[in-house]
Amino acid sequence: MRKVYTPATAANGVEHVLKLLEGRWKLIILFHLFDGKVRRYSDLEKLIPGISQKMLAQQLRQLEADGIVARKIYPQVPPKVEYRLTPWGQALCPALDTLLKWAEQKDDFPSSAPAR
Amino acid sequence: MRKVYTPATAANGVEHVLKLLEGRWKLIILFHLFDGKVRRYSDLEKLIPGISQKMLAQQLRQLEADGIVARKIYPQVPPKVEYRLTPWGQALCPALDTLLKWAEQKDDFPSSAPAR
DNA sequence: CTGAATCCATGCGGATACTG
DNA sequence: CAGTATCCGCATGGATTCAG
């Protein structure tokens, strides 16, 4: 029997999984791999203004280690490396999509973010 | 005419909204306010093991300032303060729900997280 | 092109103590 | 009960340099 889904209790235990998405750039990166898109390292660098090489590489390494992103290396000169979502990463797409739609809804709610 | 939704371009510009969810405890807190639930400060403190008063208060302040969480103070002794989601915060629930389901799917994907 | 390595500043977040 | 105030360590992340 599969575990019954209850929002009330579900919060206990998902922290560990949620932590995999922590990090300033992870969600941004994932959005750019949305939909099964395949990106090269340099593509992501251009697509994400403000990110440093170190951060891009580091967050990609972590996403890879966590089984969310897959890396494919083409042994050639100059090097070519492609990133895509793993099956589990793909499963995250609906959540990303919902998150995206929420973000876009912001303006539909008057006086939502009064400023910080 | 409303903006057309395209995952490819949508990633540009949502960063700002996504940042509102950054912070080690924010998602956890939101999960405990899921579904229109109303929680007192002390409730959240008990529900979230490991969080410090400072962090709980700080993240709540930020979520409040960002229009995601609403605070209601009962002027009485001893003090009583309730937290709930704002309408915009409520709109986030579907996304939280999808995220939760993704987290629970983890075991369905063999060799997902090989360890770090 | 795709990184790894290093140095360094910022600030996040923890622990503790204090208050209305 | 529901916070604020303070101190502080360490991880996060930026800039730069080097390398296969």
UniProtKB/TrEMBL annotation, chains A, B:
<keyword id="KW-0238">DNA-binding</keyword>
<protein>
    <submittedName>
        <fullName>Putative transcriptional regulator</fullName>
    </submittedName>
</protein>
<keyword id="KW-0805">Transcription regulation</keyword>
<dbReference type="Pfam" id="PF01638">
    <property type="entry name" value="HxlR"/>
</dbReference>
<dbReference type="GO" id="GO:0003677">
    <property type="term" value="F:DNA binding"/>
</dbReference>
<dbReference type="InterPro" id="IPR036388">
    <property type="entry name" value="WH-like_DNA-bd_sf"/>
</dbReference>
<feature type="domain" description="HTH hxlR-type">
    <location>
        <begin position="6"/>
        <end position="111"/>
    </location>
</feature>
<keyword id="KW-0804">Transcription</keyword>
<dbReference type="InterPro" id="IPR002577">
    <property type="entry name" value="HTH_HxlR"/>
</dbReference>
<dbReference type="InterPro" id="IPR036390">
    <property type="entry name" value="WH_DNA-bd_sf"/>
</dbReference>
